[in-house]
UniProtKB/TrEMBL annotation, chain A:
Keywords on record: Thiamine pyrophosphate
Lineage summary: Bacteria, Pseudomonadati, Bacteroidota, Saprospiria, Saprospirales
Residue ranges occupied by any Transketolase-like pyrimidine-binding domain in the UniProt entry: 13-178
Cited InterPro entries: PDH/Transketolase, THDP-binding, Transketo_C/PFOR_II, Transketolase-like_Pyr-bd, Transketolase_C
Protein's recorded name: Transketolase
UniProtKB/TrEMBL annotation, chain B:
Xref: Pfam families: Transketolase_N
Organism lineage: Bacteria, Pseudomonadati, Bacteroidota, Saprospiria, Saprospirales
CDD domains reported for this sequence: TPP_TK (cd02012)
The keyword Phosphoprotein appears for this protein: no
Taxonomy, superkingdom: Bacteria
Record protein name field: Transketolase
Keywords: Thiamine pyrophosphate
Homology family: Belongs to the transketolase family.
InterPro entries, per database record: THDP-binding, Transketolase_N
Keyword field contains Ubl conjugation: no
Cofactor(s) of this protein: thiamine diphosphate
Domain (Transketolase N-terminal): residue spans on this chain: 9-265
Length: 319, 284
């Protein structure tokens, strides 16, 4: 069992580095894993895979729509195609291609998307997608995963290669604390209980899990006990874990680097409204686009910092 | 060499199937379906090596993708007549609980269909993926994909047009149904398309031409390009007549997406010889 004491940063690396390491491992495991990219091989940190398996690397140029179709064709023939580009170009730009050629056609394509959310930073709002979880979650049959650190991303890539069906895997650009122990098992659709608590539940995904860990430590000092749960798989949602924790604490905060509409917060609210209506606060962007800046500055400005998680907990507890 | 008379007989029955499919559900796209009957009969009954017991991965088989999915009635007829599923299932076209959806899909598990199509411009990319996979696997069979001329107004087609020559997909044959018609009118009036030959040549494709309603020429042309391996993908600009085989459906875009009345259906069927037996259906 994990606990706040065990969740210490052991260094920093980007989740996209975790993707690169995971892809190499998945490639070692499955000789039908092929990687596609739309002119962003460097950003995807996948040189290890590409250098080891040059014949399984497909450069598609800046043609994301075609890349999704090519991936569907490769999957039809039994390959496990992994498409790679930024999250914005992996989803919004190619929604209909994913919808018809991949999701509706039940193709075993792994859509791996880096640079999601505000923490992409200086490139600004054109590239900082905050709607992608919502879009992908709406597609029937699509699995949606947003891992929280290097180790979890690496494990997630190996898990999705073993899993049959279309997957959206979302990760990011910045160097980020590594705090999930390397030997932690990654199970698609299974919530990861990070810390037992009794006063309030925090459900967190992606980069914001670290903010939630820091917030839980602060709250513990103030005598507030947090049941901290990492929802790395937003779809299918681990409803059993969500309901059990909501029943235990009676107050819920969701944390994500995404718009407040359509993402983790919405998924939790949909689940609890049906099974166990519970007070909820949303740490998410407030229906806005982002802007240029450094990752931490942006999280601060848009209400996704540690202090924002702490404040949301106090609001939901009426303190 | 193929028995051309035999293929013509099959094509006549396929055209009857198309009229009856769209008449029964009073919806669908007869015009383009009729225009492509000769092509699909040539592919499935003469040119392609394929197995109606249907294996999604198609290892060791030639593969056909339909990118302009709205002409599904012709594909369904040809698949059924080739043994992929029972011919009588054609009467369920576009009905509730059918595997024969308005636009083709894998979702209901219809044998012969490998990807959904209908939202235009996507099929060439998928065909590129299949052709690339065959290259990677050392499988020397050929991938055919049919697209519309109006469909070439979709940008994704041109992304795929760049991709295929870059990857030297000489096992890919792209066929453009150049019937000059689309929903809103003559293609030349909707959007000036210029020369497909010039465009595809400039992109690095090997370009051929054929009369898509001359089944002998279709067979000859397809067989010639099927085994060609010169490093270049092939584009065939195929002239067809929308509505071919039914006089009042030819020569305009009017029958792109419209079902015939009972009287019109009977007039059409009178122009098409029943050669293999109609599928059983009430009222027609």
């Amino acid at each position: 069992m994990l606990s706040l004491d065990k969740l210490q940063s052991t260094g920093k690396k980007a989740t996209r580095d975790g993707f690169g390491a995971g892809l190499k491992a998945a490639g070692d495991q499955h000789d039908n894993v092929v990687m596609l990219t739309a002119d962003l091989r460097g950003s995807m940190k996948s040189e290890d895979f590409i250098n080891t398996y040059p014949d399984r690397f497909i450069q598609c140029g800046i043609s994301e729509a075609n890349m999704m179709g090519v991936a569907a064709g490769l999957a039809t023939a039994g390959k496990i195609p992994v498409t790679t580009t930024f999250a914005n170009f992996s989803t919004g730009r190619v929604y209909d291609q994913i919808r018809q050629s991949i999701a509706y056609s039940d193709k075993n394509v792994k859509i791996c998307a880096s640079h999601a959310g505000l923490t992409l930073g200086e490139d600004g709002a054109t590239h900082q997608i905050l709607e992608d979880i919502g879009m992908m979650r709406m597609l029937p049959g699509m699995t949606v995963i947003n891992p929280c650190d290097y180790n979890q991303t690496k494990a997630a890539v190996q898990a999705i290669a073993d899993h049959h069906g279309p997957v959206y895997l979302r990760f990011g650009r910045p160097s980020w604390p590594i705090f999930i122990p390397e030997d932690t098992k990654f199970e698609i659709g299974k919530a990861l209980h990070l810390s037992e608590g009794s006063d309030v539940t925090i459900f967190a995904t992606g980069h914001l899990v670290w903010k939630a860990v820091e917030a839980a430590r602060q709250l513990a000092e103030e005598g507030i006990s947090v049941d901290l749960i990492n929802i790395h798989t937003i779809k299918p949602l681990d409803e059993e874990a969500v309901i059990a924790s909501a029943k235990k604490t009676g107050a819920v905060v969701t944390c994500e680097e995404h718009n407040k509409y359509g993402g983790l917060g919405s998924a939790i609210a949909e689940c609890l409204a049906k099974h166990h209506p519970t007070r909820q606060e949303f740490v998410a962007t407030d229906d806005t686009f982002g802007e240029s800046g450094e990752a931490e500055e942006l999280l601060e400005k848009y209400g996704l910092g540690t202090k924002d998680v702490v404040a949301a907990v106090k609001r939901v507890l009426g303190k | 060499m193929a028995d051309i008379q035999e293929l013509k007989k099959i094509a006549s029955q396929v055209r009857r199937d198309i009229i009856r499919e769209v008449y029964l559900c009073q919806s669908g796209h007869p015009g383009g379906a009729l225009g492509n009957a000769d092509l699909l009969v040539a592919l499935y009954f003469e040119v392609m090596k394929h197995d109606p017991s249907f294996n999604m991965e198609a290892e060791g088989e030639d593969v056909f993708f339909l990118s302009n999915g709205h002409i599904s009635p012709v594909w369904y007829s040809v698949l059924a007549r080739s043994g992929y599923f029972p011919v009588e299932e054609l009467k369920t076209f576009r009905a509730i609980d059918s595997r024969l959806q308005g636009h083709p899909t894998t979702h209901e598990g219809l044998p012969g269909v490998r990807v959904a199509s209908g939202s235009l411009g996507q099929g060439v990319s998928v065909a590129c993926g299949m052709a690339l996979s065959k290259k990677m696997n050392g499988d020397d069979r050929t991938v055919f994909v049919l697209t519309g001329d109006g469909e070439h107004q979709e940008g994704q087609i041109w992304e795929a047009a760049l991709f295929a020559p870059d990857k030297k997909l000489d096992n890919l044959v792209l066929i453009i149904d150049d019937n000059g018609q689309q929903i809103d009118g003559a293609t030349k009036d909707v959007m000036y398309m210029g020369s497909f030959e010039d465009k595809y040549k400039a992109f690095g494709w090997d370009v051929q031409h054929m009369d898509g309603n001359n089944i002998e020429e279709v067979v000859t042309t397809l067989k010639k390009v099927q085994t060609k391996r010169n490093g270049q993908p092939t584009c065939i600009v195929m002239k067809t007549e929308m509505g071919m085989g039914v006089d009042f459906m030819m020569g305009s875009h009017h029958w792109h997406g419209k079902a015939p009345s009972k009287e019109q259906a009977e007039t059409a069927l009178n122009q098409l010889e029943e050669t293999l037996g109609d599928f059983p259906a009430e009222g027609i």
